[in-house]
Amino acid sequence: MKIKNRITELFEIEFPIIQAGMVWVSGWKLASAVSNCGGLGLIGAGSMKPDLLVEHIQKCRNATSKNFGVNIPLLRKDAEELIDVVIHEKVKVVFTSAGHPGKFIEKLKANKIKVVHVVSNVSQGMKAESVGCDGIVGEGVEAGGHNGKDELTTFCLIPQLAENISVPVIAAGGIASGKGILAALSLGAEAVQIGTLFASSIESSANQSYKASIVKSNDRDTILLLRKLGPTRMLKNLWTKTAEQYELNGADETELKNLVGEKRERLGIFEGDTENGMLEAGQCAGLINSIDSVEKIFKKLIFDFDSQLNHLKNLS
After folding, report:
1. How many CB atoms lie within 10 A of CB 189?
2. Residue range 201-206: average pLDDT?
3. How high does pLDDT run on average in the chain?
4. Buried b or exposed e, range 147-163, using 16+ CB within 10 angstroms
5. Which domain holds residue 50?
């Protein structure tokens, strides 16, 4: 998988593999491990206060000499404080999500930071390009966690983004194998962003029980819920049965917000309550059969990519 394109050059990485900046999962250990393997690791600031983000950035910098970035959900009330941390700590890459991509872009670009925004449809991608983003992550509804209301799949979203915008596209959602990476590049992406596979890795800061739940899941074990708040994909458990019943009974936004509460994600992902917490994970969870190191994951992704590419070449 020796690929040289706009993404590998933009981030100065060896492989077009980016680790998603997931809440309660993507700390300095995971981000530095991915960067050390030749990809781009991201620290997930969505579950961090500014002081904790400083700590993770500094520890990540001590653990790798390579590029890494920070993912910041723009809907957070303290998003600007997190942006200020990134600038002060001289992080070179920021991925933004869940908000208007133009909100802080002038501030980030003035500090020579490369900015990529996560989108779920073509119009969002065009808006992100128009305000000056260096790249776009197109995330399909197969992805774990929060998804777009249009519920577009990765297979349909990526080629439409590639046809309508000129900045490089990164594919996300449902990718957990070398074959998936090859498919994404074939659709017009120049890199992939992988979440659930890295969430189940040894270096992930998630609870071991959460990781084990991913490993034992199959193709039908995720569910998309909370559409009135924003579609969210997670593993099925006791709590999702309750949430599903709430939705079937016509619960409004206030009732759903009260049901979710403030710490439902932390309860499931970080504390390991696999029945009462939210276990955010993508549909690719059924492809994950073991808890491996990031190094082992990279070796398998690269081997599978190369094997499948050679297989396709032999078909001609």
Report:
1. 29
2. 98
3. 97
4. bbeeebebeebbbbbbe
5. 6-206+288-314
Rounded-to-integer distance, Cα 116 and Cα 72, Å: 11
State whether 106 and 217 are in the same domain. Answer: no
Same domain, 244 and 134: no
Q: Radius of gyration of the chain from Cα atoms?
A: 18
Q: Which helix (H) or strand (E) holds 159?
A: helix 154-164
* Tens digits of residue pLDDT in 250-268: 999 999 999 999 899 999 9
Written as one letter, the residue type at 256 is: L
Give residue-wise pLDDT tens across range 145-164: 999 999 999 999 999 999 99
Neighbours of 311 (CB within 10 A): 11
How far apart are alpha carbons 125 and 215 in whole angstroms?
A: 33
Query: Cα separation of 228 and 256, whole Å?
Result: 8
One domain for residues 255 and 277: yes
E strand segments, 197-280: 222-225, 232-235
What pLDDT, in 10s, does the model give residues 123-138?
999 999 999 999 999 9
